[in-house]
Specification:
The protein has 173 residues and is α/β, with parallel strands linked by helices. 34% of the residues lie in helices and 29% in strands. α3 links the parallel β5 and β6. The longest helix has 18 residues. The two termini are 44 Å apart.
Length: 173
């Protein structure tokens, strides 16, 4: 656990005047630091500097440990709500036959239904780069087959020995 607190509390506050806020304060307003500390002490709570850059700094009379706990809880909730994008790759050769194409198509359908992006690419080995049109046709056919489940984010683009295309899942209604 980190030893330095994220906020200045009680005697660590350096300002002479502070703006006091909080649910348990009747008269919110600007107080001298000693008065604010006295109010916090009477309520058996901590004086916490919430906004040190304000003029005068904003302080809140709260239970500091409870405040930290609630902040951690909020951060955890936000992290849980953050969407992580999974990218699944599907590799083709320029001369992929129909059976392999159908097999990989079924996998891509499953990935899109699960909400993952699909990165489909054709890898050209040696002289197979001569068939780059075939690779592009293959990827475009792949995209049209998956039209109902996903939309093309990036059309086929040749990068070195790879022709890549991205398909994102359509939003569920």
């Amino acid at each position: 656990m980190d030893t330095a607190p994220q906020h200045n509390i009680n005697q660590r506050i350096r300002a002479q005047q502070v703006r006091l806020v909080g649910d348990n304060i009747e008269n919110q307003g600007v107080y001298s630091l000693s008065e604010a500390l006295k109010i916090a002490d009477e309520l058996e709570l901590d004086l916490v500097e919430i906004s040190p850059k304000a003029d005068p700094p904003v302080c809140k009379v709260i239970d500091y440990k409870k405040f930290l706990y609630q902040q951690k809880k909020k951060q955890k909730e936000m992290k849980a709500k953050a969407v992580q994008v999974v990218v699944k790759e599907i590799r083709f050769g320029p001369n992929t036959d129909d059976h392999d194409f159908e097999f990989k198509l079924r996998h891509a359908e499953k990935f899109l239904k699960e909400g993952a992006k699909v990165k489909a690419y054709v890898f050209f080995k040696g002289r197979s780069i001569l068939f780059k049109e075939q690779g592009e046709i293959l990827l475009l056919r792949f995209a049209t087959e998956l039209e109902e489940l996903g939309k093309v984010e990036q059309l086929p683009r040749l990068e070195g020995k790879r022709m890549t295309m991205f398909i994102t899942p359509k939003k569920k209604k």
